[in-house]
Amino acid sequence: MAKSQTSFSCQGCGNVTSKWSGKCDACGAWNAIVEEISGTAPPIGRGAKAARGKKLDLTSLAGSPPEPARTSFGMNELDRVLGGGLVPGSAILIGGDPGIGKSTLLIQAAAKLALLGKKVVYISGEEALAQLRMRAARLGLEHAPVLMGAETNCADILKTLEAEGQVDLVIIDSIQTMWSPALEAAPGTVSQVRVAGQELIHFAKKANAAVVLVGHVTKDGQIAGPRVLEHMVDTVVYFEGDRGDQFRLLRSIKNRFGPAHEIGVFEMRSDGLAEVSNPSALFLDGRDETVPGAAVFAGIEGTRPILVEIQALAAPSSLATPRRAVVGWDSARLSMVLAVLEARCGMSFAGRDVFLNIAGGIRITEPAADLAVAAALISSLANVCIPKKSVFFGEISLSGAVRPVNQTALRLRESEKLGFETAFLSLGGSKGEKGSHLTQDLGHSDLNIRTISDLAGLISLFKLESSET
Q1: Tell me, what CATH number does 129's domain have?
Q2: Region 68-93: what's the mean pLDDT?
Q3: Is residue 469 very low, low, confident or very high in pLDDT (cuts 50, 70, 90)?
Q4: Contact yes or no for 97/243 (Cβ under 8 A)
Q5: Contact 283, 389 (CB under 8 A)
């Protein structure tokens, strides 16, 4: 008979220790270690018979494996994030803040797939069937042939799925509520989440059915539970956005069947989530070009070019230590840009509060936004408007030089499509993309390209343009 073994696991990172402590040595989290009891088989040693393995058939890298067959949801933004559609046998993990719209998105996707003739099973461990029916009726999807169930026992769920035969999609909402009877630990603990996720992923590979796991997130925005869960699945997706705003971003962090860091944009309405086909026009809607401190950045999210407005305000401060508030960008990156402007350009922000905001609720992680941020800060400090219909992109180094960035031609084409006339970028064009090649890629373009080598050049160009307008 298997003996019960006691261990202590960190609920933040999954690190296992033999004794309890107030602080996890692996991730540094306080009061995150809990006691777990599990049944384990005796170790292989003297008197125990070791398992015999079998020889594997090894192959070479040569050959052209076929592309995985994909099933479209009928939602272009969701298909884009997943790399072109749903791959049979794949495991997808989706996380997001409470109330952000994860269940709404999955019910809409399940209904669209079921209406296409696919067999879809929705298992909820948090809501009763009556609540699911109420949400479906509110979204107008009550007639979709989606099979629903409310259960948390992983063994019962797998038995039910095997009895249903061939299933195309299984949605588990959420993985933190699932528990396996093989363990004595409580649902939501590291060991239960790991074992339940492993059993469901094993079912997906064996039955060639796609499985979507909904995951809770911590206060830091990471999916709760062991980090190994993100390594086991094929795709990790985050649903982002402010609950007070109507726009939602679906961002892929990991994707074995397509490009990572792809985003899909949705708008929350009374009848559910609606797709946004042109997010650049959405993020620039309602902007006022006559206000100082607003610059347009031409960015890249995955394979999609997106134009967003960067807003900066440098206001006089009465505090001994002026405030630095950032929304949608890295605060350390803002401190670096401010330091370069002060050290290399002689601009002083010492007695001013600096506020930076990315309009539309999107979060920018590209270093290419440095030039747009610097232009917005200079505009706010000088109280001079940025030239109309202008976009900026380029990375700023500590020497004050503006470095080239990737995919310049794609950024410029998107800018021209939305009616912009002038683009400020690095003198080198882009990495591996020189001026002649850039002009050839753009074709017959009317976009005025203004190259900048350093921040001093940005200030001189900025003053010249502002005096002309």
Answers
A1: 3.40.50.300
A2: 91
A3: very low
A4: yes
A5: no
Residues in the chain, overall count: 469
Rounded distance between C-alpha atoms, residue 282 and residue 299, angstroms? 14
Q: Sorting pLDDT into bands at 50, 70 and 90, what band is 44?
A: very low
Residue recorded with tokens 């609606």? 274
Q: Specify whether 285 is located in the same domain as 271.
A: no
Q: Tens digits of per-residue pLDDT, 6-35?
A: 778 787 677 788 888 888 887 788 887 877
- C-alpha distances in angstroms, 348 versus 8, 285, 329? 52, 32, 21
Mean pLDDT of 256-264: 88
Residue 46 to residues 10, 39, 43, 53, 89: CA-CA distances in angstroms?
33, 21, 9, 19, 40
The answer to whether 302 and 261 are in contact (CB under 8 A) is: yes
Q: In this structure, are residues 176 and 187 in contact, taking their beta carbons and an 8 Å threshold?
A: yes
3-class DSSP string for 238-282: EEECCCCCCEEEEEEEEECCCCCCCEEEEEEECCEEEECCCHHHH
pLDDT at 285 over 90: no
Return the half-sphere exposure (C-beta side, CA atoms, 13 A cut-off) of residue 225: 29
Contact 335, 300 (CB under 8 A): no
Query: Are 258 and 287 in a shared domain?
Result: no
Q: Read off the pTM.
A: 0.79
- Does residue 293 sit in the same domain as residue 256? no
Q: Does 102 lie in the same domain as 8?
A: no
Note the pLDDT of residue 442: 54
Same domain, yes or no, for 32 and 89? Answer: no
In a domain, 406, yes or no: yes
Cα–Cα distance for residue pair 4/8, rounded to 1 Å: 13
- Residue at 62 is within a domain: no
Burial class for 381, CB neighbours closer than 10 Å (0-12, 13-18, 19+): buried
| Last residue of one domain, picked from the residues 218, 250, 276 | 276
| Number of structural domains in the chain | 3
Residue 128 vs residues 131, 148, 155, 212: alpha-carbon distances, Å: 5, 10, 19, 19
Same domain, 304 and 261: no
CATH of the domain at 435: 3.30.230.10
Domain coverage including residue 13: 3-40
Write out the two tokens for 244.
């007070």
Separation between Cα atoms, residue 202 and residue 208, nearest integer Å: 10
Give the C-alpha separation, 304 to 278, whole Å.
10
78-95 average pLDDT score:
93
231: buried, middle or exposed (CB in 10 Å: 19+, 13-18, 0-12)? exposed
Token pair 């979709």 in the structure block, residue:
144
